[in-house]
Structures are given as C-alpha cells and as structure tokens.
Amino acid sequence: MHTADQVPVVPAQRPAERTVLHGETRALSHMIDRLSRRFPRHSRATVAEVVSQAHQRYDDSHLRDYVPVLVEREARLKLEHTTTQAAPTQEAPWGPPRAGVRVAGGPRA
C-alpha cells in the first residue's frame, strides 16, 4: 500500500522499452528514406511495406539492439531481388564475361 506522500515506482524497463521502440521507429524512418533513394524503381510505399514486413519478423525478439540492422539487410535483399527480376538483362557493351572471370558483384562463372 502507498501512503499519500509515496509515489509508486514504475519498473525501469518500461521507459527503456519505449525509448528503444522510439529509437527503432526513427531508425526505420531513416531506413525507408535510404532504401527509397537506393531503389528508385520502387515506390516509397513499396519500400515502407517491405521494411514493415521485415520488422514484423522481429516482433518477439527480446534483444532489440540489432533489429534495425537485420531489418535493413532483409529489406535491401528483397528489394534487390525484386529489382533484378524486374530489370531487363543487359550484357555489358564489351560482351559477356569469360569463363573463370568474375565480374564485381556478379555470380561466379
């Protein structure tokens, strides 16, 4: 019981959880901005939806420190995948790579 002059103490983890969630919200907003600039072929709404879906996968995670990093990686990979599927394939002007030569960022031949 509390007397009139005592103030109940709120557990320390509640304000910390709010701070983390606020920090995540801010990080997600910046992430959507970055990914929208990086993938201009996708609308901002599409980027936001991909980020939201990736973020939902971590709803039950107790360790929240790396959630924004994991979400951005997952969203970037999905956006890259959908961009490469939607983009027409073009050979480099100098022709296809020779067997055994690896083009930077490309698959191994």
Verbal overview:
By secondary structure, this protein is mostly helical. The protein has a domain at 14-86. The longest helix is centred in the N-terminal third of the chain and has 26 residues, at 13-38. It is 54% helix and 0% strand. The model is unreliable at 8-19 and 89-97 (pLDDT under 50). It contains three helices and no strands. It comes from Nocardioides gansuensis. Residues 82-93 have a biased composition (Low complexity). This is DUF3562 domain-containing protein.
Secondary structure elements and pairings:
Layout: H1 13-38, H2 44-56, H3 67-86
Helix pairs in contact: 1-2, 1-3, 2-3
Provide a quick synopsis of the model.
The protein has 109 residues and is mainly α. It contains three helices and no strands. α1 (13-38) runs antiparallel to α2, α1 packs parallel to α3 and α2 (44-56) packs across α3.
Provide key terms for this protein.
109 residues, mainly alpha, 3 helices, 0% strand, globular
What's the β-strand tally? 0
SS summary, helix count: 3
Helix content range: 40-55%
Class per helix and strand makeup: mainly alpha
